[in-house]
Design goal:
This protein is an alpha/beta fold. 56% of the residues lie in helices and 9% in strands.
Length: 493
């Protein structure tokens, strides 16, 4: 429960703060976009308000440092707009927050063991804490790119455990060729794999790293988050040169989830690393949730480099492949639970109704196992239907692009796409432009600043004004509401 230390007291204050924090999160999500918000603010929590200071906590020092450096002013401005009592914000690492809380406001129960483990220096003087943290960072930073730290590979994610089907055959073939390639110039450099959640791209990335390492190659496997942490920590520890040299002295670099790469300096360093490895004839493998051209937050030169190799999409799993994956997962569970029996009819049913991704298939197997072990009754199609009901989802809507919205709206209102991007402010252009901006916010995950850039370099406040104006207009004008809904359906079909 957030603590309140304002003159108005706690009565009603906690609820007001909680409501305000909810509005702050919604505004940050709208202004920054889903990708940025999920990466940096998804685990940010408001722990209370004391003397006008909103106390915000995150689980790691890296997140605290990044948000303070890049978004502190934005968070403060939004918070002040939503809660009159807030005059400043302070960021803390979760677990260390209690050290700073007023004595009267601290919770009565003792800290749990995990909380103490997360902040082992809470009881020590602040000066000693900072000296210890600085020393530990300098010692750890050079090791962030070492094999023991960077190549935290899952031993289960190898080529032998990857199930190949029509949707992933090309990606598997390219990955296998690259991993087993010995001598000569690199193949398909860089290899860029993209797919939605749970379709196996991380499995293939780790399989490449496993196989290449087994052949004696110097390989580093990193997620984008790990790359960012390593680079920032090396700057703070003044070991950036060692970090760069370690990444450039390898045979293969494997980077996963590159869509989460944020920050101008980090993207520049990533681009320099990519260029250095490509120029040196070293293999690069990259994975993301979308093709390079759709990574709008990424530097254009980096996108161009990534698109210059082999770009392969891993498509959604077909029913036959889902059935094979289920059978393999069930066999793995049966090794631990020999009495677990799943009839073929149940396997076929689950493979047919769960058409999303491999992780949902894992969840289905876990639910079937729980039903079988907890009830003791045999599995049937009827019981399986009840067990996996929460995993059965409607098919994901088509991914809509801003360019598609602009083209459709321009054609519908008899203006050109260039008109929508221009500075023209005639009524014949302003209305369709605002509708196109509104649809871009509603149907895509792009942030307001990104949408503004795609509409002739406009400011995000212009986009926000357009969105709010159309939202009000569709509520007041049934004809316009029907027109906008028609445009939505046309874009999503």
């Amino acid at each position: 429960m957030p603590y309140i230390d304002d003159a108005r007291g706690a009565a009603g204050g906690s609820e007001d703060l909680s409501d305000a924090w909810g509005r702050v999160r919604r505004r940050l999500r709208a202004e920054l976009g889903e990708d940025v918000f999920s990466s940096w603010f998804g685990r940010l929590e408001c722990d209370g308000l004391a003397a006008g200071t909103a106390r915000l906590s995150v689980p790691t020092r890296f997140l605290k440092s990044w948000i303070e450096s890049h978004y502190a002013d934005r968070v403060l401005a939004v918070f002040k707009a939503e809660h009159a009592a807030v005059s400043r914000v302070a960021f803390f690492v979760r677990g260390a927050v209690t050290r700073e809380m007023p004595v009267a406001a601290r919770p009565s129960e003792p800290a749990t063991a995990p909380a103490r483990a997360a902040a082992p220096v809470v009881a020590r003087p602040r000066v000693a804490d900072e000296a210890r943290e600085s020393t530990s960072e300098k010692a750890a930073a050079p090791d962030l790119a070492d094999d023991s730290a960077a190549n935290a590979l899952d031993p289960r994610l190898t080529f032998s455990t990857f199930i190949v089907g029509r949707s992933n055959a090309l990606a598997h073939a390219a990955a296998d060729r690259i991993a087993r390639h010995d001598g000569g110039a690199p193949l398909y450099n860089p290899l860029y794999l993209h797919a939605g959640v749970g379709l196996g791209k991380t499995h293939l990335m780790q399989a490449i790293a496993h196989e290449a390492q087994g052949r004696g190659k110097r390989v580093i496997y990193l997620t984008a988050d790990r790359f960012m942490y390593g680079f920032v920590a090396s700057l703070k520890a003044q070991t950036a040169l060692a970090f760069k040299e370690r990444l450039r002295g390898i045979d293969m670099l494997v980077i996963d989830d590159v869509q989460f790469l944020q920050g101008k300096s980090i993207q520049q360093e990533f681009g320099h690393t990519i260029n250095a490895l490509l120029d040196a004839g070293r293999q690069i493998v990259v994975a993301a949730d979308r093709p390079p051209s759709d990574l709008e937050a990424l530097d254009e030169r980096v996108r161009s480099r990534l698109a210059g190799g082999l770009v392969v999409e891993m498509c959604p799993l077909d029913e036959e492949l889902r059935s094979r994956i289920l059978s393999m997962r069930i066999a793995a569970v049966q090794a631990l639970h020999p009495a677990f029996e799943v009839p073929e009819a149940v396997v076929a049913y689950v493979a047919r109704v769960i058409a999303t991704n491999g992780r949902d298939l894992d969840g289905a197997v876990n639910r079937l196992l729980a039903h079988a072990t907890l009830t003791g009754s045999p599995l049937t199609v009827e019981t399986a239907e009840a067990a996996v009901r929460d995993l059965v989802r409607t098919r994901d809507p088509k991914r809509v692009k801003i360019e598609d919205i602009q083209k459709l709206v321009a054609g519908r209102y008899n203006v050109s796409r260039a008109d929508l991007l221009s500075e023209r402010r005639t009524a014949a252009v302003v209305k369709p432009r605002q509708i196109a901006m509104y649809l871009s916010k509603v149907l895509t995950l792009r942030s307001l600043p990104e949408i503004g850039r795609r509409f002739g370099g406009r400011d995000h406040t212009t986009v926000l004004h357009a969105v709010r104006k159309i939202e009000k207009a569709v509520g007041d004008d049934p004809a316009l509401n029907e027109e906008v809904e028609l445009l939505k359906r046309m874009l999503q079909e």
